[in-house]
Amino acid sequence: MNEGSLPVSALRLNMLRAYYALMAAGSLAVFWPHLVSHSPEWGIESGAQYALLGALAPLSMAGLRYPLKMMPLILYEFLWKALWFVFVAAPLYVEGQMTDGVLSNIFACGIAIVLTPIVMPWRYFWHTYIVARAEPWGIRQIEQGVAASEANG
Predict the structure, then answer these.
(1) Would you tell me how many other CB atoms lie within 10 Å of the CB of residue 63?
(2) CB 133 within 8 A of CB 91
(3) 3-state secondary structure (DSSP) of residue 6
(4) Which of 20, 38, 83, 106 could be bridged to 63 by S-S, CB 3.0 to 4.6 A?
(5) 65-86: per-residue pLDDT in tens?
(6) Could you give the C-alpha distances from 60 to 18, 57, 87, 108, 117, in angstroms and in order?
């Protein structure tokens, strides 16, 4: 199934855009101040964390223009937060070691955990990213695909 062959409503597209705007605003507000005024005490882990999460801002802004093409970014946002819940927050809770910082992260991550299943056009995602034919791996397959599309077009 080709991209665009499965309709997505204008409401759903605008919900995706609002979600991308929320992601961009959150990333800009939380991570970019740390990136531009970094601490010399940062280790590789802290620097990488801020850079990776700071990169969500410009990518999320691309989602405002291309909400369907950027959907894997929303899935990435959902997955890293879900993994954080399972492997960081839950063990801290079980061990009784919750802090104010962890609690505020639970709230921030919880927003994505709740909103993603509501906002994502799952049927479109499934058909476009899971069921659709994969892009070719070899040069011969790519050349055959180009020749076929030129013959049809």
Answers:
(1) 22
(2) no
(3) coil
(4) 20
(5) 999 999 999 999 999 999 999 9
(6) 10, 5, 25, 17, 17
